[in-house]
Each structure stands twice: as C-alpha cells, then as structure tokens.
Amino acid sequence: MTNRIGMNLLLWGTEIDPSLFPVLEQIKAAGYDGVEVPIFDTNPSHWEPWRKKLDELELDRVAVTINGPDHHQISADPSMRHKTLERNKMALECAQVLGSSLLTGPYHSALGVFTGSKSSADENKWAAENLFALAAHAQQLNITLGLEYLNRFESYLVSCTDELIDLVDRINHPHCKIMFDSFHANIEETKLGDAIRKIGYRLVHVQLSENNRGTLGTGHVDFKDILTALADINYQGMISIEAFSSKLSAANIWRNMFDTEMQLVKDSIQYLKSI
C-alpha cells in the first residue's frame, strides 16, 4: 500500500482549535502523512494558524464538514436552502485557507433530520441544484467535493452507494465526487469491496472505521477486502482512519473502546500497515 495515511481529529472531540497542535505533532511522530480537519468554524481566518502548523509538520490535510438541523440543504424552506448553500460556500473558503483540495462529508443534507419517509422528488431536485452550485464554487477555488453517505439511522437523502452515485451523476459536475466510509458501508452494503469498485473513478477519499468506531482490527470489518478493491480501481488518494469516543456526543458513544487516543492512533496504523 502506497497511499498516504491520515487521522481524523474528531477522535479528540469538536473543539478544533490550536490546543490540538501538540496532538498533530504526536500524529506525525506516529507515522501518519496527514489529518482530516473538521470545519465547524466557518471564519476563514480561524484556519490560517492551522495551515501554518500543518505546513511546518509537513502533514497533508483533508477538510471535512457536516450540516446540523440549522443547515438543511433539502428543506422545503427556500431561505433555509439558501442559508445552507452560503454556509457551505464559507466551509469551502476555509478549506482553501487550510490548504485542502477536498471538502468531504455528508453536507448534502442535515445530520439526524428525518421526515419519516424516503427522500421526495423535490428533495432530490433541491439537493442536485444546491450541490451543483456548491461544486461550481468549489471549482473556482480548485477544490473538489467528496460527498459521503451515512447509514439509515443518521440520514435519509442517501444511505448507500447506489443512491449516492445516482445523486452525484445527477449533479454531473467534475468537482463533485464521492468519499467512502467503511462504518456506514458496513451497515448498508452487501460487500464492501464491490461497493468501492462500483464507485470507481468517482472516489476521491476513503475513511476506514471499525464497526464499533474503535481501533482498526479489533472488530469485524474486512479491511483486506477494502484495500484489495482500492488497488483494483487504482485509488491514489488518502486513506484516513476515523474513530470516535465519548468526546463526540453526536456519535452517541458512551463507552471508550481503547485505553488512550494515542494508543488507538498507533495501534490502528500498525494494523493497517500489517495488512
């Protein structure tokens, strides 16, 4: 495996500020090539010291963002859709300051918001329209969108590979692509490797997460199958490790399945390199 390996900073919670700079140094020392940086603060100036620190450590970076209930891109309210588009454009501006060529995540719709039924024709249309406009803005900044589907318990617009491919193909913009998260795929797909092969050329980012969000190799996700499929499609992007703890309340994890964050960081990359 020659792909760069990254670590998602949500393992340390949602306070993404310079207090995490020592953690970046530890991640670098553990052998990682980059980090996933969650964009919650959409003030571009907030990310200037981050770019400086990441450049200093020679760490690659991938920006990731989510939308909560206050920013729902498929809302029936046009003002909400407009507000969400503008917010996500600001997230793109932050990604540019950070130095990321990607903005990844499930920002196609709001996390944890449901209507009690599958997405409607109008919701699918609003998603495609808004995301096309967002991709056009991303193109101006030389950034590509990497859309992520979540499992059925967290999102309803898209919750599997086929649905996300349909959405991205409907958007039909060269700067709108797909990312793959093994946690959600482990719930929704029959075979993870086949899902990756189906995504194919659309794949721009990968998150590896154990079924329990703990240390890679301690659960039942078939990471060998995933890596084989990535090799089959000649995937050249970053492979990031994503794990959560009780510090991320939105994940509803109230028990830690590791001794310390850095132990998980070290054990996960060692496992990944071993296979």
What's the CATH class, please?
Answer: Alpha Beta
Give the quaternary arrangement of the chains: single chain
Q: How many strands, which pairing sense, and closed or not: the largest β-sheet?
A: 8 strands, parallel, barrel
Shape: globular
* Computed structural class: alpha/beta
In DSSP terms (H or I, runs of 4 or more residues), the helix count works out at 9
Integer tally of domains: 1
- Any idea what the CATH superfamily is called? Divalent-metal-dependent TIM barrel enzymes
Query: What is the arithmetic mean of pLDDT?
Result: 95
Helix proportion: 40-55%
Rg on CA atoms, Å: 17 Å
Q: Total number of β-strand segments? A: 8
What gap, in angstroms, lies between the N and C termini?
A: 9 Å
**What are the secondary-structure elements, in order, as H or E?**
EHEHEHEHEHEHHEHEH
CATH architectural label:
Alpha-Beta Barrel
* Regions with little confidence, pLDDT below 50 for 5+ residues: none
CATH topology: TIM Barrel
Strand arrangement in the largest pleated sheet: 1-2-3-4-5-6-7-8
Strand content: 5-15%
Task: Explain what you see.
- By secondary structure, the protein is of the alpha/beta class.
- It has helices spanning 21-29, 48-57, 78-98, 121-140, 161-171, 182-188, 192-199, 223-232, 261-274; strands at residues 5-8, 34-38, 60-64, 102-105, 144-147, 176-181, 203-208, 239-241.
- The chain has one domain (5-274): Divalent-metal-dependent TIM barrel enzymes (TIM Barrel, Alpha-Beta Barrel).
- 40% of the residues lie in helices and 13% in strands.
- The chain has an eight-stranded parallel β-barrel, surrounded by six helices.
- The termini are close together.
